[in-house]
Amino acid sequence: MVNSTAAITFENIEKNFGSLRVLRGISGEIHRGEVVAIIGSSGCGKSTLLRCFNRLEAIDGGRLVVNGMDLSKPKLNYRQLRQLRSQVGMVFQQFNLFPHLSVLENLTIAQRKVLGKSAKESAQLAAFYLEKVGLFDKASAYPEQLSGGQKQRVAIARSLCMNPQVILFDEPTSALDPELVCEVLQVMQQLAADGMTMVVVTHEMQFAREVASRVMFLNQGQVEEQGSAREVLTHPKSDRLRAFLSRLNEGVRS
């Protein structure tokens, strides 16, 4: 039974890459207005789970419903995929901006081609969101002229232009120099304050502690522990989670 208050429901989902079993009967829910941080060691299935939520990967078993759309089906048609990706935004680790397009063009192209908006309407919305992420003056710049933090803020603004119901973030700060991380996290904090439903794969524990309403710790393709961010990160029950957090703390101290 799918919970109508949930933006995302996943029940016993499986995902394999050849003989490698990546997601092992994983279940859970993401509620509307929640900010859920997904944490865990490399290779535990975090990014794969996130990519399933946007049908960048198809599941091999179980049931997955995202914003009312059943993604358990082996095939979706073009209309269904377009609808899904207009409702569920994705911000990637490596930004994925079009290098040959200006910042403004990066923000307007999907609005025009997917949503059918006019050039004027899409440009107005792009300007609004560039202002929101503090990059209005970079509208005519090209990605190669931006810092990593600026590129990621443009990527967030591009996602917002599609008026998504949910935004997925795949380690949005891991490709950034430490001094640029803060500017991206500030934008994400504001989105959380505005009530955006967000699922964030991250190693930024301070962000998870302060902004996430819930944390899910994945281990070997399963949810090993979850709960309120403060409870899970301050009082971990799992030995594996305690070891994971200890390794992160050692990395910060070094």
From TrEMBL:
Coiled coil: none
InterPro entries according to UniProt: AAA+_ATPase (IPR003593), ABC_ATPase_HisP-typ (IPR030679), ABC_transporter-like_ATP-bd (IPR003439), ABC_transporter-like_CS (IPR017871), MetN_ABC_transporter-like (IPR050086), P-loop_NTPase (IPR027417)
Molecular functions (GO terms): ABC-type amino acid transporter activity; ATP binding; ATP hydrolysis activity
Domain of life: Bacteria
One biological process term in Gene Ontology: organic phosphonate transport
Record's keyword terms, sorted: ATP-binding, Nucleotide-binding, Phosphonate transport, Transport
Domain ABC transporter: 8-245
Family, as annotated: Belongs to the ABC transporter superfamily.
PANTHER family cross-referenced by the UniProt entry: AMINO ACID IMPORT ATP-BINDING PROTEIN (PTHR43166), PHOSPHONATES IMPORT ATP-BINDING PROTEIN PHNC (PTHR43166:SF4)
Name used for this protein in its record: Polar amino acid ABC transporter ATP-binding protein
Species assigned in the record: Chroogloeocystis siderophila 5.2 s.c.1
